[in-house]
Specification:
The protein is mostly helical. The chain is built from 3 helices and 2 strands. The longest helix has 15 residues. It is globular and about 45 Å long. The chain starts with 8 loop residues before the first helix and ends with a helix.
Length: 74
């Protein structure tokens, strides 16, 4: 089994969404929701953000240090 340790979660999901032969994504695929969830998960795993403890929980950015990926750094 190949190692994918150098890829971010959203990159892995995008690779799974690609068609093997054409190298494109299905037009009806909703992989973008999975990519969005992977971006949030990656930031949570790297302790860049958290949910506050208020009555209406909100996502709070703790650390804005760049990770070296344009999507995550944005």
């Amino acid at each position: 089994m190949p190692e994918y340790g150098d890829l971010f979660l959203h990159e892995l999901i995008f690779l799974l969404a690609l068609k093997d032969e054409e190298g494109t994504v299905n037009s009806g695929a909703i992989y973008n929701f999975a990519v969005g969830g992977a971006l949030m998960s990656e930031l949570l795993l790297r302790e860049k953000l958290h949910l506050n403890d208020e009555k209406k929980p909100r996502v709070v950015m703790d650390d804005r240090t760049p990770l070296g990926d344009p999507l995550l750094d944005e």
